[in-house]
Amino acid sequence: MSDLVTDYDVEADVVVLGTGAAGLTAAITAHDHGTGDVLVLEKSGMVGGTSAMSGGMLWIPLSHQQQEHGVEDSYEEVVDYLDALAPGQLDHDALAAFLDCGPEMVRFLADSTPVELRLYPGFPDYQPNVVGAKPHGSRSLDNEVFPFEELGSWATRVNPPKTGLPKRTSMVEDRFRPELSPEELADRERRDCRGQGQALIGSLLRAVLDRDIPLRLESRARRLIQQDGRVVGVVTEENGATLRIRARKGVIIATGGFEWNDKLVKAFLRGPITAPVSVPECEGDGLLMALEVGASVANMSNAWWQMSTREAAAHRSGKPNYLLVQQERTNPGSIMVNRSGRRFVNEAVNYNSLGRVLHNYDAHTSEFSNLPYWIILDDRFRSRYRFFTSRPGLPDPSWSVHADTIEQLAELIGLDGSALRETVDRFNAGVRAGHDDEFQRGDSTFDNHWGDQSFEPPFCTLGVIDQPPYYAAQMEAGVLGTCGGPRPSADAQVLDWSDRPIPGLYVCSNTMAAPTAGIYGGGGGTLGPGMTFGFIAGRHAAQQMR
Ligand SMILES: Cc1cc2nc3c(=O)[nH]c(=O)nc-3n(C[C@H](O)[C@H](O)[C@H](O)COP(=O)(O)OP(=O)(O)OC[C@H]3O[C@@H](n4cnc5c(N)ncnc54)[C@H](O)[C@@H]3O)c2cc1C
Fold first, then answer.
1. CB-side neighbour CA atoms (13 Å) of 109
2. What is the largest CA-CA distance in the chain?
3. What are 423-445's pLDDT values in tens digits?
4. Using CA atoms, how far apart are residues 125 and 523, in angstroms rounded to an integer?
5. Phi and psi for 110 in degrees, rounded to 5?
6. Is 526 touching ligand 1 by the criterion CB < 6 Å?
7. What are phi and psi of 478, to 5 degrees?
8. Which atom of ligand 1 is nearest to the CA of 534?
9. Which tens digits make up the pLDDT trace of 279-294?
């Protein structure tokens, strides 16, 4: 769409759309690489998007943290790994840019901002048995806790975690449980120290504030302004008013994915999303704006799949606040079954691969055979582990049911009782024999990593289901976000269908076609590439002529 606009309401060199981790990284990088004149627009009233609710981990192969730990890794191994998982699908230019610039991005943040990332030892890659994988970890980075007292009045402007309660610990501390002294814990409480995604966004936001980069909240970018083929600005909506913002050097789209936009989901994805776990502002605004100016797209039928379920509390927007499901399916003593009452997958496999199985199509019944699906567990599980929002001893989640027998449980959720009985019996027999012959749950370091560490593999994740009462809850086809969108060049410029960059337009975050082609390499598989392209985009845009 071509405009002849001469009067602008606001001007900056680089305009960044979105305040997730990728957007904030882009803004800081642009500021420090040749332009002090950066402006950030954010659709919601809060900073940080889904990134602030996340674990905050980054998958960055070949980082300086790896070197400091003496970890052996190579460019070739990473490419072999991703190639094996997405044969023929990788964009090797974008992938090379990710692998070259990921370590640079991490180094830049370490040298220039309060962001503190350290290696998460032992966190296995998500497909550890594939060539080039690191089954015993080393490519995932974790955040040190960050004191929110340093954000002043901005502390209340950071999107809170899903539970509303920030963790005072990092992911590494959660895992290895070092003895933190009562003084240390009290100090963390007093300084409002937060770990994980809160730490990532908190420390990035501090860097933005230190540079006096203006943040305009409740500003929804709607349309790009293009003149003579170049993107020169953006039209945004603020409190019912429409503003024209000039971007002398470039516009960087970091608006997240399109998972909350039903039309886009139906148009592009290979199956339904019934419960996304991201912020509801991820409605594909960036994708739509880029399509209007001729962007080409890739990876559109895929997403960062995730298992999710309902949560009682609503999001502040009034939209549902869906809960991500992890330990319920990886701790011992639970299984997941489909509408036939049968297991259909290794429940402990990584969420991104598991999500693909939810869209298996039954050519006979013309249905998705694994939707809906349910989690089934017994009282031993219930009394040991968290069950969604509920800890042992606390009331059950309101949307779960329980019964004294497997058959009664099946009746409550509308499944065939004898099929479910048979499924549970077969699973128990496998556990007692020490192997899941059906789906190989517990065969990989990954499966066991996410289970109960007080057992030996494979029993970190394999446990019989035989202690009544039995519990069930319906599960949903969730996503962390989508991973398809405008194709980035190696400089993060948006490419058109002739592979020419659209001048002045950049993309990063879950808005872009992921350089890993939607393969979740390891812990941090979305934030690592998303922030790296934020870094690349910020640097390139800042270095353009005005
Ligand atoms: C509980 C949980 C744990 C997770 N853990 C991890 C993890 O450890 N590692 C990992 O890699 N991934 C993790 N994820 C996934 C990860 O959080 C997301 O993939 C990532 O945060 C997406 O970042 P983003 O910048 O694309 O989007 P977001 O962080 O959602 O940011 C997009 C921002 O753009 C804004 N926006 C949207 N439209 C507009 C517009 N038109 N104008 C202006 N602004 C706009 C939004 O309001 C939002 O603030 C987790 C997710 C959850 C829910």
1. 35
2. 75
3. 999 999 999 999 999 999 999 99
4. 7
5. -65, -40
6. yes
7. -105, 170
8. 25
9. 999 999 999 999 999 9
